[in-house]
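Protocol step 4 of 6.
Sequence for Cytochrome biogenesis protein (Vibrio zhanjiangensis) entered exactly as in the expression construct, tag removed. Do not edit the line below.
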Amino acid sequence: MTPDWIGAFFIGIVGAAHCMGMCGGIASLLSTNSSNHSISIPILYNLGRLISYCVIGAVIGGAISSIAEFSAINQALSWLRIVAALFMILLALYIGRWWHGLVYIERFGQNLWKYIAPAGQAFLPLKSPLYALPFGFIWGWLPCGLVYSILTWAAVSGSAVNGAFIMLAFGLGTFPAMLLVGFGATYLNKLKQSNVFRQAGAIAILAYGIYTLHQTITLLSAS
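Step 5 output, structure tokens:
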């Protein structure tokens, strides 16, 4: 287990409130309005979401590492890691509600999402709990600044496997909150919306982003 995996998992926990705001409504709707009220629906929905994260993490991580290797550009991944560190800082500002710049980044994904969304809507209403799996997979591509930030980590992970595991760790961090909201729980959302919890998480992410930025710049300067 690498520090990046642990960091991604922690960000998933802290950022779960954002996920509940983005996807929680549809997760709750699946459980309450499905023709088949099954405990498996939220589980399969979130499992599909995690699979989609792993796929995009593997694709991005593998593609960037291959480009860096075949381009023969020395320290290409280190330079990209600076970008990832900057995204961590932006994410901390967003979670702490100090600056909402990530909202503008989310808008870049809206054009693609309008073509993907109909594929997910075709599964509604769910004819079977199993339909929640592909529905969750599609909904995992919903434009989200939080996901985009973690994808920058996957991009500089050095391989498709590491990219997939970083995204999986992030998804697992969001899993408990998203699963509970699928069952209609609300008390966890109150915790996530707690100003103390949010500020503490944002400060921790900001510190990690600054630390990563400093370490990367130091390594580049020494080489």
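Step 6, annotate. The chain has a mean pLDDT of 82.
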